[in-house]
Please model this.
Amino acid sequence: MSGPLKGLRVLEFAGMGPAPFCAMVMSDLGAEVIRIDRPGKPSARQDVLARGRLALPVDLRDSDGLDNVRKLIDRADVLIEGFRPGVMERLGLGPDACLQTNARLVYGRMTGWGQAGPLAQMPGHDINYIALTGVLHAIGRDDECPPPPLNLVGDFGGGGMLLAVGILAALQEVHRTGRGQVVDAAMTDGSSLLSAFVYGMKAGGQWSNRRGENLLDGGAPFYGTYVCADGRYIAIGAIEPEFYRELLDRCGIRDPLFSEQMDVARWPLQKLKLREVFRGRTRDEWCAVLQGFQTCFAPVLDWDEATEHPHNKARDTYLSIDGLTQPAPAPRFSLTPASRPVPVRLASMEEALDFWPAPEQVL
Model:
């Protein structure tokens, strides 16, 4: 493996969603990742989040298996786990025990509610975490229930990605002082952090608690999605005045109704007018009219179409591994580019211990 994290040793305890995503990102960037799997539930080769790992089935209730895992922990730079608070402690693998034998270890903990607080022991999923932080309330139409926005905000943005940032920051502290520490990454904390921009706008009187009447939540007619004649959709984001004027010009709109872009009182009628305009042509016809111009336009593509779009193909945004199409590693590095990922591979304990030789064996 190559990449800016080449040589970094990461031990991952298999879990769901955000913790595996964090481990995948670190593997994509060159880290050596060993995943501790549950016996009888091996990581599947088609599991994109598991790519780039050695998967090691271990029964953590078995004393020999637990002893060997402790050997790997002592050789690791980073540990990632996504269990409820207290699970690792009950296994004897909590941060106090691990840092006692490996003082440089960065111990990454991924949970929904955090390691402490009234809800710390409660079950939950992405939709619950973003509901508690105000994010879910802000998504959708005002006359409808807030829709589940996939699980990208809590699990992957506010969860796995923020855990990766925390781990990298803690590794800098190890580099500076030689001391490892615990990274407590909670999806409620991360989702809240992602909404910092909205809190700034709200403080400035530029954001309302009502859905569908704000600049970026579908309230503005020039920032939203529209259905076309063929039932497909386009996305418009012409916020800046010059892009707004270009959009109107390309659409052939001369109506005085659109003369004041930021007049919120006009937005409902402007949206109705734009709906009529965009229903007049198919999505591909609108691509011919608006794409390639200063209109902040894009077609709304499905998963299959996205992989075939010329821009994504030119940048190799997607790749195929063993016939499975998936996103390529990101971001990109000029000096230490990432290797092409490989599927997860089942390993034995002997192979894992050889893969990470003990410190005294390193030449």
